[in-house]
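Deliverable D4.2, example record:
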Amino acid sequence: MELAEFYKYLEYEKRYSPNTLISYQNDLQQFAGFISSEYESKPSTASSSQIRSWLSDLMARGISPKSVNRKISSLKSFYRFLESNNKISVNPMQKVTSPKTGKKLPVFVSEEKMQMLFDEIEFEEDFPGVRNRLILEMFYATGMRLAELISLKHKDVDIASAQIKVKGKGNKERVIPMLIPLVNTYKKYLSLKQNIFGYNYTDDVFVTDEGKKIYRKFAYRVVNFYLSTHTTVGKRSPHVLRHSFATHMLNQGADINAIKELLGHSSLSATEVYTHNTVEKLKTVYKQAHPKA
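Output generated by the structure prediction step:
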């Protein structure tokens, strides 16, 4: 009962995205299953030792500290909800500590490789070709998330003002400027889309060859295919283009607070991870150029 109430709270009061809701539900259902089978207990009555036992079991099964910390975050939110609604008198998470995680630097594509990608790849001038180019340009020129690109509507794109209104995590809106090349590609795509599907086409910006809204795997495959032709980075996902956007902006001297707003981060600490890539680049230049290096 408490779990169902918590899910409604996340959906209607916190207004979390469907993907975030699924993550919370998966974490809490896994926890509920564990303490039910091991202790014949339920989440609302679980003790700190029972919670630590579940976390230890996760670590023993090879679950990464990052994933475990996400599950801890889900539990903390759940028990705060119970505490604020007087469902429990003692919060068991107060005696639970999070495992340490090593910080991983974001994977990004170099500026030179990104320039070569757009200059050298011959995108077809038909609808699929222009759409695929627009997907890549949109990710790299705006830094938007995969879910944000998929849910983008034509009414959110203001060609006259050269800006895009994006609805991010927690339904928070932000405005991102459009570069002239992106505006031009968007205009070309819009014209092709109107010619094929007519003026009563779906308001979703990105659609498949059949005119249906694109999905996560579709966008991922497009990005993966084109990045694989010009880069050897291990990851070739849409998020790599977001990382590349932020890293290149920092390398060119952009203010980190401005990048934070463009990315839609809620805190500056989430954006500061990109400064490490910039520092690493400076170290490389230093070692190559300094006579004492």
